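Comment thread on ticket #2218

A.B. wrote:
> Attaching the input chain for the structure job we discussed in standup.
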Amino acid sequence: MTFLDRLRASFAASLRAPEGVAPPAALLWTDSEGQWLPLLPQLRAVFPELLTLAYEKNQPYDLSLRLGPAIWLRCVVDRALPEVILPEGRIPILYLPRVNRQDLRAAGDCPARLLPLVELQFRGRIWHQVSGRDWSVPAFLVSEDGLGLEIAHDRRTEEAMLRVLEKLVEVDLDSLRGRRLDADDFDKLSVSDPVRDLLRWMSNAEVFEASNRGNRWETFRNVCRTQFNFDPDKESVTAAGTALALGKGAWDTIWRRFCEAPQLYPGIGKLLSEPTATAGQGLLSFDASRNPRANEEEEKDLRNQMEAIGSMAPTAAAERIQRLEERHCARREWVWAAMGQVLLRLAKLARMTQSPVGGESFQAAIAAYVDSGWQCDRLAMDALGQFKSEADRRVLGRAIRAVYLPWLEESAALSGVAAETAFGRTQGRG
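C.D. wrote:
> Ran it. Output below, let me know if you need it in another format.
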């Protein structure tokens, strides 16, 4: 059974009348602390007979929400308002948030706004525990007449439980049985993907906090404290950046998640580039992959080396490209890499251009190009297509030209010789 199924069963038990006794006029549900208020939207959808007492000062009645003052509730119960039609065969349930049952019992001292409801205690029933106490949320969750869950008895757990009450309604109860639930268990119901939420906060704290206020922020904060040993209320985004860069404990898992889809968290690269965030990265000389500034320095050096290659002889250019590939190949796995990604194609191009296309005959030259020569053209085009930056494209273009153009010229010359030879042989036969 679901949470709402158990609630329906409990209401039905309270309304059950002995044979020969008239059914109660209404079920009164007092909730002095307003603990059940977060569930109202879901309860209204499931219980069309649910009516709510206006619980804020000067709150007007709202027919669409079936909410109004005590005199309006009394009129609905007595079927005196034609515009309010209760479902056939359903006894109205009057939810009275922030009302203490003792107020209704002490008629002489009852607040004036509640007086129209006092008489309904006798014609109706009050939803309460076997002990006579009102049903609080914690009591309903642990009672065998409610959900029958085993829950830790501490303040933090109760606060977490109330924060996720809306989520709890959607959860399969069987997944919560067989263990003692505490604050962490309830917080996880609200923050289904804490790593993602932490990365979103680090990427843009202002936007994240604006959309996660109140209970949602408290839940997020508690999960961060218990799972990541980090308190976003007391520690800054910059401190989170430093922890991510250091990657100790749970933060290593967060780093791997970031690397899976860095485009989803564009602000993190900027965060880790800040000197204050990377101040602790002197400890990271063994793992520069987490430091975007280290990658930028490598990129700058690579760009300079590429620019120098443009003026080199073909053989020297090919050798330099191979050495650069050996030095930068590890950066291909870095989340920050840019030009380093192109080196693989460029190094392969440098190797392949050492063997120009040609042959003893024109047919042999064609076969050589079909076999492998075409790859040089493809590698050159693919490498040039990697950049949106015109400056990088120019630098790379000169490096490609240094090894590719001589290959083209020599291949063309060899193919031309083969063509002339073939043509001469044809003329001789003629």
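A.B. wrote:
> Thanks. Noting for the ticket: The longest strand covers residues 27-31.
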